[in-house]
Request: fold
Amino acid sequence: MSSVPPVFISSAEVERLLPRASLLLPGLEAALCNFSAGAAGGVEQPLRAVVPVRPHGGFLGVMPAYSAADDALTTKLVTFYEHRGDSAAPSHRATVLLFDPRCGSLRAVLDGTVITAKRTAAVSAIATKLLMPRSAEVLCILGAGVQARSHYEIFTELFPFTEVRLWSRTEQNALRLASSVGGAVRVCGTAREAVVGADVIVTVTMATTPILFGEWVKPGAHVNAVGASRPDWRELDDVLMKSSVLVVDSREAALAESGDVILSGVSLGAPVLRSSV
Ligand SMILES: NC(=O)C1=CN([C@@H]2O[C@H](COP(=O)(O)OP(=O)(O)OC[C@H]3O[C@@H](n4cnc5c(N)ncnc54)[C@H](O)[C@@H]3O)[C@@H](O)[C@H]2O)C=CC1
Ligand SMILES: O=C([O-])C1=[NH+]CCC1
Reply:
């Protein structure tokens, strides 16, 4: 078994096998349920280790997991860089290693960059399906990078929004994204213009200070706060954090990694377990 060399699955192959992020929904819903069930769910997923690469403004994240239900043993390795010399280079790059859980031999090395784009958007879509207002019409996306595109794709596939608004710090990037997707997108000159009246908001920036302010957000709106994944990064201001009902997949990770949670000082309530999503 251990003499079989691992297969390599490139980004093009991942794209071919996974043309739409929505294909991930059943597997991710089951994985979220298993993870939320604690020991009974059979998921071993410690808090990831994140190694700063200080001279270069980067980070290396190591994300191991074992799922008994899938008998899958895997690790994602992801690098992400705040400041890139070549601005066209992707800020995030990932590789997924898949092991044979029976003996620990390496079976596959997969490009994880496409997987990260699609998995993250699919999990936001699951949260949105469960938490958005019933009559949601307006989608707002703040940011215009890789995650903005993947969120646009799955959200417009799954939900009947009548208007999609997009804002980016660099308007040119928003215009480029808007013109490259199939449907109608309103590019807004300010984040406020994009947010006011929106029913579902997605924050997918690398901002380190708030870009989304509670005074703009419609009561009952659902926010997918994706970007601020370092303890000193923010996307949402204190007003919004303190006036919202927070739903997290991992309390441990939210309290250790989410700048929005840590720096706003909000406390997470008692865990709520659901038998299905
Ligand atoms: N929660 C999760 O599971 C995941 C979170 N992320 C996070 O989502 C965010 C977006 O990731 P990608 O789309 O891959 O990155 P990207 O580099 O492709 O796009 C980043 C976007 O943020 C904008 N931006 C950068 N600095 C900003 C600032 N100070 N203020 C406002 N906008 C700013 C850029 O102009 C660009 O539109 C990142 O923070 C990333 O770490 C990414 C993957 C998974
Ligand atoms: O889960 C992930 O891939 C990442 N989270 C923050 C940066 C990359």
About this structure: The chain has a mean pLDDT of 95.
